[in-house]
Structure formats: structure tokens, C-alpha cells
Amino acid sequence: MRKNSVKNTRINSEVLKELSIIIRNEIKDPRINPMTSVVAVEVAPDLKTCKAYISVLGDEESQKNTIKGLKSAEGYIRHQLATSVNLRNTPEITFILDQSIEYGIKMSKLIDEVNADLGEESDEENASSQEEIEE
To answer: Which of 7, 15, 39, 105 has the greatest number of beta carbons closer than 10 A?
Structure first.
């Protein structure tokens, strides 16, 4: 099976959906932040390994604790995945912290700040040009 085949894409989406449900509903580890989401999943073509990209909304300590909690619950997660997804092999899961959502939020805030500053400057320029016209 090739990496980007239709079958592999379908398996990736199914594993992503099931991992999200397992992490949200079935894991009771207090280290895992409730605002944890599975961003993407890459299952190897031989179905032996899987990379799960996890996004955690919170501070750096919360992110580290969530990854530790997920790594310690990996066996349970893999067992639950095996029961919910019918695959020849249940892949070994590697959890990777994905900070792209957090980075996007940060960039969006910076853009909003720049736009607000530009808006204030243009308001000041418009006010000064109105004064010049009136004189």
C-alpha cells in the first residue's frame, strides 16, 4: 500500500476519529488536559506505526503533562483502538505535540494589533488633513 493511497487516507481518517473519541471520553488521567485534540494522524503503509499529532490548549507545563499522560496510557489507547477499528495490525502510536494551532492564534493576535495601530494612525492623519482643509 502506498503512502497517499485512498486506503491509507481512509485508515488515517478513521484512526484520527477513533483516537479523538478515546482521548476525550475514555481516558481518566488527570494529567491530560480536557482541551486536547488530535490534529492529524499518519499511519504507516504497513500498519505497524502511527504518528498522532496532538494539540493542547494551555500553558507549556500542561502540554508536557498531557503528552506524558498519553504516553503512559498508550497501551490502553492501542487496545481500545484495536477493538474499535478492524485492522490487520494495530499500529504502535507515537504522540507528537503539535503547536500549529497555538502559533496561528498568536499570529492572528499580532496581525490584529498591527491593524489596530494602523487604524489609529490613519484616523489621526484623516483628522489632521480635515483641519488643513478647513483652514
So the answer is: 15
